[in-house]
Amino acid sequence: MRKSKSLTPLFFLLPALILMVPFVIYPVFKTVYLSFFLDDKFVGLENYKNVLLSPDIVNLDRFPTNSPPWGALIHNVVWIAIHLPATVFLGLGIALLLRGKEIKGASVIKSIVFLGMVIPMIVGGLIIRFLFEEGAGVIPAIFKALGIEGLAITWTAYPKTALFAAILGSIWIWTGFSMLMYSAGLASIPKDYYEAALIDGANRFQIFKNVTWPLLKPITIVVVAMTLLWDLKIFDVVYVATGGGPGGASMVLALQMWDYFARALNYNYAAVVAVLLTTLTLIPALWLIRRRE
Amino acid sequence: MNIPKYKLKEFIISNSIAWILGVIWLIPFVGVLMASIRPYREIVGGWWHFSPFTITLKNFVGAFNHPMFPISEGLRNSLIIAIPSTITPLLVAALAAYAFARYSFPVKHYLFAFIVFLMALPQQMTIVPLYFLLRNFHLLNKFQGLILVHSAWGLAWIIFFMRNYFSMLPTDVEEAARIDGASDFKIFYKIVLPMALPGLISAAILQFTWVWSDFFLALVFLQNPEKYVATQRLPLLRGQYFVDWGILTAASIMVMLVPLLVYTLFQKYYISGMIGWSTEK
To answer: Do the Cβ atoms of B125 and A27 come within 8 Å?
Structure first.
C-alpha cells in the first residue's frame, strides 16, 4: 500500500466522481429533499404520514383475512417470507444433491437451473404470465387435472392468486443464484474435514449440521442479503406478469414508486416511496458492509 | 461404471430427484419454444398437445417486423446502448478501483463503504431528479442520456469488483517498474490492466448483460417508441383482442438470445464474475 501525499489517487478517482456525482449521488440527496416537499412547499413529514397511512402501502383492513390487495409494503414482506426461504433452501438442496460424482449430467442440470438468472427479468416475468394462463399455461392445466378447479384459472387475473403467481414464478427465476453460490462454497470445503468427521463416526446429518452448514455460513449471509435486496427491488417481473394488478393486488414498492411518478405525476409521493424502499435495503446492505470489518 | 449393489438404490433415487428438478426448471423454456414455433391455434389450448404439430417461422417474422414495435429496431437500439454503457464504466471504474486497491488517502474507508452502499441502492432512489436533470440538458429520449445513466450506475459494482481483483494481484512487478522510474499511470495501463484482463472480461460480460436486460431505466428515460430498447417492446407486443403468445414468445427468444449467447461463450468468466461481485476474497 503506497502512502501518497500527492494527488495521484485523486486523478485515478476523478473520472468516476465526475460521472457519479451528477448521475447517482446528487439524485439520491435530491430525492430525500423532494420527499419533504409538496408543490415546492416544505411540509415536513406530512408526505410520509400520507403515504404510509394510504391503503396503497399498508392496508390493514384487508390483511390478512381478506385476499390482496394488502398494500405494496405488505406484499414485499409476503414476498420475502415465501421467496427467501424457498430459494435459499432449494438452492442449497440442489447444490448438495449435485455435488457428488454420482449424478449423471449434473452440470447440465446446474446450467438449466441457472438459466433463470441469465435471461432478462422482463422475459422471466412474461414466462411467468404464460405459465399461469388458463388454457395455454402449464400450472392451471395441472390443477385442472388434479380436479382443483379453483386454481385452474389465469392466476394473474385474480386478486387472490396474482401476487402468489409472481412470487412462485420468481422462485423459478432466482434459485439459480443460491445454487451457484452454494456450489462454489461446497467446492471450497477441504475433503479432510469430511474424512475426519467420518472417522469420528459422524452420520450424514451430523456432518451437515456440524461441518458443512457452519462452514457455509459466509455464503449463507451473502445469499440471504442478496435475496433480500432482490425481493425488495422486484419490479420487472411484476410489471409484465401482472402490472401490479388486478386492483393493486400484486403491487410492490418499486412499482408503486413508478406508479406515483409516471401515472399520478406525484413526484413527492414517489420520492417518499423511494426513500422508504432505500431505507429497507439499508438493512441487508449494512449487514454486508459490517461483515467486511 | 461399477456401482456397489447397496448403493444402487441411492444412485437411482438421487439421479431421479436431480433430473425431475432439472425437467421442472426446463419446462417453462420448452413451453416458450413450443409456442414460438407453432401457430396460435395449436398452443392456445396447451402447447403439450402435440397433434397437430406444425412448425412455422411466422411468429419470429411477425415479432421481428412488428408493425408498431418491431423487435429488430429494439435489438439494434439495445446494442447501441449496451456497448458504450459497458466500455465507459469499465475504464472509469478500473481507474478508481486501482486507487482503492493500491493507495491510501484520506476518507478512503468511508468512500469505499459509500460505494458498497450504492451497490445496494434501488434505482428508484435516483430517477425523479435524474428525469428532470436529463430533461434540462436535452438528454431525455436520447441514447446518450441513457448511456450516461447506465455508465454511472455500473460504476459502484465494477469498482467494488475490480478493487477486489486488483487486491489479489501480486505487486512485485509494479514495484520493480516503479524503481525503474515508470509513472503511476504507465504502471496502471502497461502492467496492471493486462494482468487484470480476466477480471475485466468478467465485469464487461456482466455489465453488458445487465444493461441489455435493463427495463426500468429505459422505461423512464426513453419515451419515444422509435427509441425503445428490446426489453421495453416485449410487454407491448400482446395482440389487440387476445394475448398472442406466438409473437410474445418468439420476441422473448430473440431478446434473451443475446445474454444466453454471452453466457454460453463466456461461461467461465460469467460464473466467476457472479461469485466475485457478491462475495469477497
So the answer is: yes
